[in-house]
Amino acid sequence: MVVFFVRVYYSLSMPKNLNVITEQNER
Fold first, then answer.
1. Residue 12: what pLDDT?
2. Tell me, what's the pLDDT at 10?
3. Domain boundaries in the chain?
4. Over the stretch 1-27, which tens digit does the pLDDT of each residue have?
5. If residue 26 lies in a helix (H) or strand (E), which one and from where to where?
6. What is residue 6's predicted lDDT score, i.e. its pLDDT?
7. What's the CA gap between 27 and 13, in Å, rounded?
8. How far apart are CA 14 and CA 9, in angstroms?
């Protein structure tokens, strides 16, 4: 739940950050 909220917040803060989250998820 928290992860989802953070992902949305990051997306709004900076779409570029979304790429970082995706990379971390791959790990």
1. 73
2. 72
3. 1-27
4. 688 888 777 777 665 655 666 666 666
5. helix 15-26
6. 80
7. 23
8. 8
Tokens of 4: 């989802």
Please state at what angle helix 15-26 crosses helix 2-13, rounded to 10 degrees: 140
Q: What is the pTM of this model?
A: 0.34
pLDDT at 27: 63
Token pair for 8: 């949305």
**Cβ atoms of residues 18 and 11 within 8 Å:** yes
What's the CA gap between 8 and 6, in Å, rounded?
A: 5
Say if residues 15 and 8 touch (Cβ distance below 8 Å).
no
In the three-class reduction of DSSP (H, G, I as helix; E, B as strand; rest coil), residue 14 is classed as coil
